[in-house]
Amino acid sequence: MTITERDSISEIERRIELGQFRWRADREDVHMNNEAALIDMIGKPAKELHTARSRNDQVQTDFRLWCRDAINRIVPSVKHLQGIHISKGPNRCCYKQHYILSFVEQLDRDIIRIQHCRAKLNFFPLGACALAGTDLPIDRFMTSELLGFTAPLRNSIDSVSDRDFVMELLPANSIIAVRLSRLDEDWVWIHCTERLCFNRE
Q1: Which domain of life does the UniProt lineage start with (predicted)?
Q2: Which of 34, 36, 63, 170 has its CA at a distance of 20 to 30 angstroms from the CA of residue 186?
Q3: Are 128 and 53 in contact (CB under 8 A)?
């Protein structure tokens, strides 16, 4: 890929992020819109964008990247919440301190659960094409490594049809949401009873 092509892709990304990209319904979907815009900018080389790739494996790759990025944002947020609990616990009476720190343990399990999801989804589908792969001499291992995946998926049909990682990630996030709901309610209780606890001490 030449500097011009890289710059053009970056420019398309910039326009999308700023809301300046013109989406056209006659171009079917996001991939065709991006490809057509790139063709408009650099011409014939952009027509090779789909070589050894299809929308099937591109969508799967994008979906896995999105889920992975989401997990990469969620985990530090949960760890930050743990840190707040650790810092607040010692300032309260003994039984409340013990209770507050119980959430640190629960959030640990949430982190482990969602990191397990990340490990399972971090396999590379690109190169499976529509479902049967390609006879072009592509290096899926190199591309997988460049994009930070563990390894390419082994079966091309499974590569484009698998959605297990989403079905596992959603309940993992639901558990975190329920945990936070309970935590919010309990913090109200702690706030309302804290003065009484200190007065008794």
Answers
A1: Eukaryota
A2: 170
A3: no
What are the residues whose beta carbons fall under 8 Å from the beta carbon of 79, sequence distance 6 or more? 111
- Burial class, 42, CB count within 10 angstroms (exposed 0-12 / middle 13-18 / buried 19+): middle
Report how far residue 60's alpha carbon sits from residue 1's, in angstroms, rounded to the nearest whole number.
23
pTM of the model: 0.75
When pLDDT is averaged across residues 3-12 and rounded to a whole number, the result is 73
Euclidean distance between CA atoms 130 and 156, whole angstroms: 8
Cβ–Cβ < 8 Å for 85, 190: no
- Break the chain into its structural domains and give their ranges: 1-49, 53-200
**How many Cα atoms sit within 13 Å of 31 on the Cβ side?**
13
CB 38 within 8 A of CB 6: no
Beta-carbon contacts of 122 under 8 Å, excluding residues fewer than 6 positions away, are 64, 68, 148, 149, 150
Q: Contact, 52 vs 138, CB < 8 A?
A: yes
User: Could you tell me which CATH number the domain at 53-200 has?
Assistant: 1.20.200.10
